Amino acid sequence: MTDTAILGLGYLGRPLAEALYLRGHAVAALKRRYTSDDVALPIALNAADLDDEAVWTQPFWAEHWADKPTWVCLLPPSAVADYAAVLRRWLALAEHFQAAHVVLGSSISVYGDAPRLCDEHSPPQPATASARACVAAETIVLDSAVPQVSVLRLGGLYSAARHPLNRLLQRQPLPQPQAAANMLHQDRAVAALLHAIAHPQGRRIRNIVETPPPTREDFYTAQAALLGLPPPQFDPGDTRPGKVLASCYDDVSF
Predict the structure, then answer these.
(1) Distance between CA 190 and CA 219 in Å, rounded?
(2) 254 Cβ partners below 8 Å, 6+ apart?
(3) pLDDT in tens, 67-94
(4) Which of 15, 33, 225, 229 falls 20 to 30 Å from 26 in CA-CA distance?
């Protein structure tokens, strides 16, 4: 593991920062605005608006980021006005300060929704603006001059504190009960990020999902029981399959 700087201190960034600190590593991070939860964080934390051009010349990059060998981006496309432009400016700084390893938290949404088996060799077929932004970001990162690049395409994220089931229960019946769930628990996502940070391996793209994937009906029914929620109702007539995520590699464990 190495000292690390994190762009985006949210759902994954905060637990990742805490896990790195507990392992004895210096951590810097940047988020949009401070909250009361940030007061006691034992990291070098700054807040700034990434849509403001002035942010890229602020002194905290040289003070807190320049000595970190690993730079991690966990910023979702929705967080900024121009995701590609932000990634280019951020990577220019990474190259300037000679970062050794960049880790990008991407999404399995880059594969689109067409029914198929998707591994790392499957061509992206993004169907939404956010997914297209992720594909563009991956290309920008992989084309950078940073020596080591890890792109982690993360499955649908969930945890007890933030679970998609709460939203899905409001619009039943749910579609595609027999399609693969392709999910990833928050803790496992953080574990995969930690493993990728500790074991750079050239330029790589990795799918990070729980395997074998349960069906949507099995997954959400089991999760409802764990959360004490009513079991979701699915449309039994919807037999459409979905995409199934797999990985050709085992070098990013969780």
Answers:
(1) 21
(2) 188, 189, 191, 192, 195, 208
(3) 999 999 999 999 999 999 999 999 999 9
(4) 33
Q: Any idea which residue has 């700087």 for tokens?
A: 5
Asked if residue 91 lies in contact with residue 102, where contact means CB atoms within 8 angstroms, the answer is yes
Buried b (16+ CB within 10 A) or exposed e, 95-124: eebebebbbbbbbbbbbbbeeeebeeebeb
The radius of gyration computed from the CA coordinates of the chain, to the nearest angstrom, equals 19
Residue 179 corresponds to which amino acid? A
> What residue ranges do the domains of the chain occupy?
4-161+183-214
pLDDT (0 to 100) of residue 35: 85
Burial class (CB in 10 A: 0-12, 13-18, 19+), 226: exposed
pTM, whole model, 2 decimals?
Answer: 0.96
Which tokens go with 32? 């949009």
- What residue type is 68 in one-letter code? K
Please choose, from the candidates 58, 56, 31, 57, the residue with its C-alpha nearest in 3D space to the C-alpha of residue 43: 31
Quickly name the fold that domain 4-161+183-214 has: Rossmann fold (3.40.50)
Nearest to 137 by CA among 110, 111, 99, 115: 110
81: left (phi over 0), alpha (psi -120 to 50) or beta: alpha
Q: Round to whole Å and give the CA distance between 129 and 133.
A: 6
From 32, 12, 51, 39, select the one nearest 158 (Cα to Cα). 12
Residue at 13: amino acid letter = G
6 bridge partner residues? 29, 72
Mean pLDDT on 141-170 = 96
